[in-house]
Amino acid sequence: MVQRLNKFLAAFVYSFPVQLLLNNFKRNHVMMLCWVILFAMITGSFGKYLGIPYLFLDPEYLNKVNFTSFFILGVTTAGFTTAFQITSYINDGHRFSFVGALSKPFTKFSVNNSIIPIVFLGVYLFQIIRFQVNNQYSDGGTLAWNITGFLVGYIVMSGVFFVYFWLTNKDIFKYVVCRIDEKLKEKVQVTRASAMKKLDIARKKQVRVDTYFDGLRIRRVEDEADFYDRAEVLKVFDQNHFNLVIIELFIFGLILLLGIFKDYPAFQLPAAASFMIFVTVFVMLSGAFSYWFGNWSATTALVIFLVVNVLYGKDFFSKKYQAFGLDYHKKPAEYTVASLKKLNTDSIITADKDSTLVMLKNWRAKFGTQKPKMVFLCVSGGGKRAALWTLNALQTADSLTQGKLMEQSILITGASGGLIGASYYRELKLREKQGEVTHPFSYVHRDKISTDNLNPLIFSLLANDLFVGFSKFEYAGKQYIRDRGYTFEQQLNQITEGLMDKPITAYRDPEQQALVPMIILTPTVVNDGRKLYIASRSVSFMNNDVLSYPNYASAKLGGIDFHSLLKDQDGESLRFLSALRMSATFPYITPNTTLPTEPPVQIMDAGISDNFGLSDAVRFAYAFNDWIEENTSGVIFISIRDSPKLSTINAKGGQTIIDSFTQPISTVYNNFENFQDINSDLLIGMMKPWFNAPVDRIDLQYTVESYVPVLHEMDSLRQNNARASLSWRLTTREKYAVTSNILSPENTQQLDKLKKLLE
Questions:
Q1: Using CA atoms, how far apart are residues 729 and 709, in angstroms rounded to an integer?
Q2: Nearest C-alpha neighbor of 145 from the set 169, 121, 128, 124
Q3: Which residues lie closer than 8 Å to 501 by C-beta, 6 or more apart?
Q4: How far apart are CA 53 and CA 41, in angstroms?
């Protein structure tokens, strides 16, 4: 019995599939890392907070999840699997010498090297079915059709590669290889040297294999003396290296083609498919790199990385993403401590205040003799979910108050997605006042604002920013590169019906006439952490710290007025969509914007300094506190936030060594919003000494955990992170959870309070 068991274990261990699996774990660390990342993504173990798993489980193409979107994902998944097989064969085929003596060696190598791809495919399909059933209301027929789309795409792409390799490996030792061998041997000495080295390994360091799969049959490995003929082994290596080059050229050509036509929606692949193409190229390049440089590949890669890193730091490769409307050919604006102080003198601040007072007086004139409540709308960042939540909250609150909310609002502040949603609603209200039929309360606008932004961004990153990046467009008489900043703006322009495609100064008159609230965008300057105040006019008075210490020579200056800084660089022509993009810079997705200054200033998300906009609202109230006290019956700060303010405090579990090492950084990151909340509460609480009028606060919060019905309908994948993902794309379930949350008991109570305050 023991003998039979040992014999079985030996047969299992020394089978070709098992040895290839062990070899992959032993030698192909880059490829295995890619597989691990993909497994983590589809199972929800990686990137769940950012919604990455849902890109794979619910792919969207042309704003639809259907047969076509799954078909495309199936095609790209098969492409990555083929890249894995090619690279494995090129790198490790020589370790299994018997393969070279078989007919169609690559095909048989791939069949035996399919444990990981088969397991991945099975897990992937299971996760898709699980997610679609539990989260997307898919009926059986639709789900089956979508799965069919994925499988058809996978099979079609695999079939294309199979035919190619079947043709190129036909009579490998007599025809095709001989011609390639002659060319490569004559012209590419590195290839020949690499092949000779692999031949030595093939002779001396063979991996024991007893059996292999030949189709559905198990065959024993036979000794093939002819394999050790030098010429034949070189032909095998040369042939498959040639195959790799052809496939790589095909993929790069495809990416180039897609990049040229990236502005056409039909060419914008699902985000997960774009990622699959990226890892496919990465794996194939790593395989080629390993083949060419052998044992020196790691060292060579490190040296190349260090050189490129240095050159990148010297702007040899780095790209500067521009704000459209600004003139980058004029002399850059000076950005120094001394120049900033010159732009924040008492006379400049007073002039900006006087201009804004006209707006305040026009706002006051709408209400007759009765003193109104002045409303500050403070909206939080949070990607697509914040945009949808803010729009939905404003629609609901404004409707319940018969339009009084927007009529009595004087200022909108905030960050990222929240400002996108608020800006869109403001534009709808403005156009309604101007006589256009916009139906600002309609659900149609929620459907539009929740449309996917991520697919075009990821695709642009792959097909344009990394490889192409040469096409240009014209705006305001100036030329700019069609980078992913442009892609983001164009997609945003499309989903908002082109209503906000105008220079930021186009809102100056409507705001001055108090038709709509003023918006101040506050992206963060990467160089020094200051806020960049962007509005339809100069708002230097937002630097209230200057007024607080008039005789203090070392005032830090918490911010800088955009118009004052870039007056000579056509600051007034800044595209409003560019301003929104600057305020919504999401790390690694939406690029940092570089301004025409000296030294060059880079701009990041407004949420870094104040994700909720409350501190900026207090700054505005402080600048005009005397006028507000005299002309209003108090102020209302309405905080529309996409996160709970008083979230549940979780018990601290056991710490790993890594947790202990990263705790100083992770603590700051995990409590980032808490720090800002504490500071905002402090600022509002300290208004009492200098503001002698009532101060009220309304919090409309996206707090999923308090809305039980939504949680009950979620599967375990979503229960672990009930909030909608922080992304520029939302699933059907996430859209439902965000919009329905306005009906939570807490939000209903706050809306009732708001109605009473505005009566």
A1: 23
A2: 128
A3: 493, 575, 576, 577
A4: 5
What percentage of the chain carries pLDDT values higher than 70?
81
DSSP string across 229-279: -HHHHHHHHHHHHHHHHHHHHHHHHHHHHHHHTTTSGGG---HHHHHHHHH
175: which 2 tokens? Answer: 């025809």
Nearest Cα neighbor of 377 from 635, 629, 735 is 635
Q: How far is CA 101 from CA 94, 172, 231, 270, in A?
A: 11, 10, 13, 42
Whole-number Å distance between alpha carbons of 357 and 364: 10
Instruction: List pLDDT tens digits, range 547-592.
Output: 556 666 666 788 899 999 999 999 999 999 999 999 998 767 888 9
> Using H for helix, E for strand and C for coil, what is the string for 484-544?
HHHHHHHHHHHHCCCCCCCEHHHHHHHHHCCCCCEECECCEECCCCCEEEECCCCCHHHCH
pLDDT, one tens digit per residue, over 78-100 is: 999 998 998 888 788 778 877 76
Round to whole Å and give the CA distance between 451 and 466: 25
Reduce the DSSP state of residue 62 to 3 states and report it.
coil
Average pLDDT over residues 619-625: 94
CATH placement of domain 333-644+659-702+743-758: 3.40.1090
Q: Please tell me the distance from the alpha carbon of residue 189 to that of residue 194, in angstroms, as a whole number.
A: 8
- β-strand pairing of 601-604 with 593-595: antiparallel
Query: Could you tell me the two tokens for 524?
Result: 């963060």
The count of residues in the chain is 759
Residue 368, CA atoms < 13 Å, CB-side half-sphere: 1
> Is the CB of residue 219 less than 8 Å from the CB of residue 211?
yes
In DSSP terms, which residues pair with 639 in a beta bridge?
Answer: 378, 699
Residue 30: strand pairing partners? none
pLDDT in tens, 260-307: 777 778 888 899 998 998 898 888 888 777 767 777 777 888 888 888
Would you list the domain boundaries of the chain?
2-313, 333-644+659-702+743-758
* Alpha-carbon distance values, 124 to 38, 44, 129, 141, 151 (Å): 9, 11, 9, 19, 11
First CA to last CA distance, the chain: 89
Cβ–Cβ contacts within 10 Å for residue 313, how many? 10
| Measured distance CA(376)–CA(757) in Å, rounded | 13
> DSSP states of 665-717 as a string?
HHHHHHTHHHHHHHHHHHHHHTTTTT--S-EEEEEEE--GGG-HHHHHT--HH
pLDDT of residue 197: 53
